[in-house]
Amino acid sequence: MFDPNSHSRWCSRLGIRSFALMDTGGVVRVAALFCGLSLGWSPAAQAVDPFYERLKEDGIQAYNRGDYAAAAVDLRLACFGMLEEPPALAHCLVLLALSQAETGDDGTLGHTFDRISDLERDFEAFSQLDLDPDRRRSLEKHLKRAIPYDKLRRLPPFHDIARQQLEEQIDSMPDDEKRSELKQRIESEPEYSTWRLLLAELDYEDGDFAAAQAAAEAVLLREPGRQDALCLRGKTSAKSGSCDQALIDLGHCLESEPQGDLNLTRIQCHISLGDWDTAEFVLGELSGSDVRPATLRQLTREIKRGRKATTATGDAAALAEPSPRPIVEEATLEEPLAAASAEPTETAGLEPGEALELDEPKAARAEIERLVELLQTGTRDDLEAVQSEAHRLADDNPQQIEVQLLAAEIAYRLSRWDAAITYFDRAGVFESGRPEHQFYLAVSLYESGDRATAQEMLRICLPQLEQTEFVRVYSQRIGSSGN
Length: 483
Known about the structure:
Blueprint: H1 4-13, E1 21-23, E2 26-28, H2 50-64, H3 68-80, H4 86-102, H5 106-123, H6 133-146, H7 149-152, H8 159-171, H9 175-188, H10 193-205, H11 209-222, H12 227-240, H13 243-249, H14 259-272, H15 276-284, H16 293-313, H17 365-377, H18 380-396, H19 401-413, H20 417-426, H21 429-432, H22 435-448, H23 451-461, H24 469-478
Antiparallel strand pairs: 1-2
Helix pairs in contact: 2-3, 2-4, 3-4, 4-5, 4-6, 6-8, 9-10, 10-11, 10-12, 11-12, 12-13, 13-14, 14-15, 15-16, 17-19, 18-19, 19-20, 20-22, 22-23, 22-24
């Protein structure tokens, strides 16, 4: 039976008046202005007037050709003719919302979303729609951008969009604020594992690999096969040296993960397992990526040395014993330490049996000794005054190892991290430099933002260093598990 109040409510929601005229014979059914529908309503489906179906088709065609303003006009009028059929109306409103979103009219998009929400609440009409997947994705993208979280989270069909919106907001926060917000979300939604994994990713980035792995394992107990949890477990397993498990789990990392970082992790695992061929193959996939050329050279050298040692001994574990642990001087954390050798060597970083070819003319010994003395006893201002001279000397004599180390250490003392990395690399420190120089290089890599390579360099040199407070603190910063 016709309910004029219900009818007026729906027409007014769409911004239009309806009329119910009475006479002695009962209700006179008339077309409302721009409403065009029978004022009687029953639960049985009613056929939509062909006029409004044509308007809807006109709106769809306008949308498909990119005329979103015209589409919004046609679809708004078409929706007025579908008030008696919630499923048809819901579909029409979705198309209208897409058109309004494309015109940038977020105000009317918000009103249309309210109407969709009313239909979902009263009839579950949105849940029952069989939407084209591309249109559904487009709608979700616009709703996530334009509709407030509190509105989206009220109804189940929009819960995922609301959480995605919140995830993006949290991701843009500073780390401390992000960590605090995630802990609150875990308390309020303990069943939603994504919050736990996002917090675990923070732990991973901060070098707390044990906490990150524990969180990934806990999620996998509840949701076996969850790919982002498997990926995180793979990354943390690699850090703990469980490379067999890591290589299995890393296969679940999605394309959204930084592929350069993942391939570096895979290469390091293959190297640790002595799988030189696979390590070399994956290394080839890093060409053209944003991985530092120095990192690529270092890994190439490691693979070359490992394959050579395996061929020579038949056992990749039969590598030379580490040299006695040198002492690294402690320095303040505000000014990284530097040490210049009393007897500089020109053979660091060479393969056994390789000869060192020096460019001529050699740098003048007196010039080198003066810079060494300044490095050992000079102030920061003194080093600032001679850094250009040191760089020129190193650039003019690229094959002289001691000159490269001298320029690198001066750059290191002055916190010129990129220059320090360049000159340490020329000196062969990536491959086989003295452990203290490898430590300086690890610090420089970390400070320049290349944490992955810094961690690998620290892994190589740390067992040979005296564990001073400075070494301990920087090891923690870089994220090494060895202290």
